[in-house]
UniProtKB/TrEMBL annotation:
PROSITE patterns linked to this entry: HTH_LUXR_1 (PS00622), HTH_LUXR_2 (PS50043), RESPONSE_REGULATORY (PS50110)
Protein name: DNA-binding response regulator
A Pfam family recorded for this sequence: GerE
Single GO molecular function: DNA binding
Modification 4-aspartylphosphate, positions: 58
Domain Response regulatory: 7-124
Species the sequence originates in: Streptomyces griseochromogenes
Keywords, ordered alphabetically: DNA-binding, Phosphoprotein, Transcription, Transcription regulation
Residues in the signal sequence: none
The keyword DNA-binding belongs to this UniProt entry's keyword annotation: yes
HTH luxR-type domain mapped to chain residues: 149-214
Alphabetical GO biological process terms: phosphorelay signal transduction system; regulation of DNA-templated transcription
Length: 219
């Protein structure tokens, strides 16, 4: 039995960008572009109506930007989509703020078609961190380092700390299980504990929190 198509919404104020993204994604098996939005406010409305699996979100849009749109989408839907922010500049502080707000990752507008398709499939179907080295670079540039480590750092167990470091390296639960020689269910439990203790909703937010706490080295 084949998997249902990954449903995608495109949010960008430039029609030509949306047209190009639609052409690339629609040509791929298992991907379906179900809607478009030209402003941040429209993106929130379209996503609430269509309930896609993935949103490609420009960070700079009229009315409300991609950061606020991401926050509203994640805060108001019980099962929100995965949001990938799309940007022109790799070290854009807007992108970092979007990751802190809950975006699953980011993609450069100059990325080739293969990278675009890979990113959509990855965030929709796996538990891996999208482009972990790029997230690390962003953290090195923009992380709001805490004056002292937050309380959650000392509450992590040794295994949870190890899992968090592997998450930052982009490993999936299955890869972490093999690396740590434990079962996938055990890793899933450790990941859930890490998210609960860091007060984050997903792997990307947890890794960002770890960089800002000084738990992970950005140097």
């Amino acid at each position: 039995m084949s998997r249902p198509a990954i449903r995608v919404v495109l949010a960008d104020d430039e029609r030509m960008v949306r047209t190009a993204l639609r052409a690339i994604l629609s040509a791929e098996p298992g991907l379906e572009v179900v809607g478009e939005a030209a402003t941040g406010a429209e993106a929130v409305s379209v996503v609430r109506e269509l309930r896609p699996d993935v949103v490609l979100m420009d960070v700079r849009m009229p009315e409300i930007d991609g950061i606020r749109a991401t926050e509203q989408i994640l805060a108001t839907l019980d099962e929100p989509p995965r949001v990938v922010v799309v940007t022109t500049f790799e070290n854009d502080s807007y992108v970092y703020d979007a990751l802190r707000a809950g975006a699953a990752g980011f993609l450069l507008k100059r990325a080739d078609a293969d990278a675009l398709v890979q990113a959509v499939r990855l965030v929709a179907r796996t538990d891996s961190l999208l482009f972990p080295s790029a997230v690390r670079s962003l953290a090195a540039e923009h992380a709001r380092r805490a004056a002292r480590p937050p309380a959650w750092v000392s509450r992590l167990t040794g295994r949870e700390s190890e899992v968090l470091r592997h998450m930052a390296g982009g490993l999936t639960n299955a890869e972490i299980a093999r690396r740590m020689e434990v079962g996938p269910a055990t890793v899933k439990s450790h990941v859930a504990a890490v998210l609960a203790k860091t007060g984050t909703r997903d792997r990307t937010q947890a890794v960002i929190a770890a960089y800002e706490a000084g738990f992970l080295n950005v140097g």
